[in-house]
Amino acid sequence: MGDLSSQLRPSPVATLSSSKPAKPTPSQLALCAEAGNALSLHMDIRKIKFPGSIEVGKLIQVAEAKSNLKCATLELGGKSLLINFPDANRDKALPSATLFLLVNSKGCALPTRLYVHEYFADEFAAKLKTMVEARAQSLGGDPTLAITRSSPLCHYCQRNVVFSYIDAGNKEAALLIGGKPFSSEDEVVKVANDTEFELAAYVWTADINGALRLSQKLEAETISVNEASSFHPSAPMGGWKLKITDRVRDAGGNPDAPGTVDAVRAGDKSGTP
User: Fold this and answer.
1) Domains in the chain, ordered, with CATH?
2) Where is this region: Disordered (predicted)?
3) First and final CA of the chain: distance in angstroms?
4) Which is nearest to 190 in space by CA: 178, 173, 205?
5) pTM of the model
């Protein structure tokens, strides 16, 4: 076997944090914007790993076909979900939903789609609004202060993009679909699976058997029940549809098989599926 090396192409706005962990391994840093295209087309590179947009992910796959059919693991965004059934522990489910929505930085498995049963939808929405407003007081604060839960965006261009979306939403957005509670398991499964991005799902319910039944219907790789979010190192880590195009950590020896489900319930500290 020949010598192994890796090429790291960090974000131009966060090069230092990416370069430090690369030092113990035989790596080379590629800091220019053109490096990604050159690496994807290089005939001597056998593996590409890329987290980012669908547009760039598609370009990488085109480069694979034009070069040496190298293997690529692509993580292309995510819109994971959180489902609250009427028998859920609301004292825990509500803070969990707030934390996931406002946690600092990117999280590939963070649920940004909330589904709430009609039995307590109004109560859930009112309390969620109160919690979000309280949490918003420290958004973008000094990252060195303990009270800051979400630090500022690292670049003014990103800030401008975020504000442009907020401004456009205030001026132009209208609710075309969604925004309503669900009334049955079949209904929530249908709307939950209506997306091209799915890595994880979070289910709050006292009915563990029902949660396990639901895990066979949801198009998500990891199903966490009642705040459990453990990922066992031997379990597959991937997604459905456009989320992740290659599975990693697959002890089953079949990284190409879609539809693998890893279900973890609260209280299982080992994260064993």
Assistant:
1) 6-75 (no CATH), 80-265 (3.40.309.10)
2) 1-24, 248-273
3) 35
4) 178
5) 0.73
Compute φ and ψ for 207, nearest 5 degrees: -95, 90
- Active-site choice (64, 108, 187, 227): 108
Nearest residue to 48 via CA among 266, 259, 268, 246: 246
Least confidently predicted of 194-198, 199-203, 246-250: 246-250
For the segment 195-204, the average pLDDT, to the nearest whole number, is 83
Instruction: Evaluate whether 224 touches 111 at the Cβ level (below 8 Å).
Output: no
Q: What is residue 33's predicted lDDT score, i.e. its pLDDT? A: 58
pLDDT at 252: 45
Residue 32 is among the residues annotated as catalytic for this protein: no
The alpha carbon torsion through 182, 104, 99, 75 (nearest 10 deg) reads 40
Q: pLDDT tens digits for 37-57?
A: 888 899 988 888 888 778 888
Q: Is the dihedral of CA 104, 268, 84, 243 positive or negative?
A: positive
Token duo for residue 128? 């969620």
Edge-to-edge, what's the strand order for the sheet holding 222-225?
Answer: 111-116, 80-84, 200-204, 222-225, 262-265
Strand partners of residue 3 = none
The tens digit of pLDDT for each residue in 221-242 reads 788 888 756 566 666 666 666 6
pLDDT at 204 over 70: yes
Catalytic, out of 32, 34, 64, 75 = 75
Say which DSSP state 120 is in. G
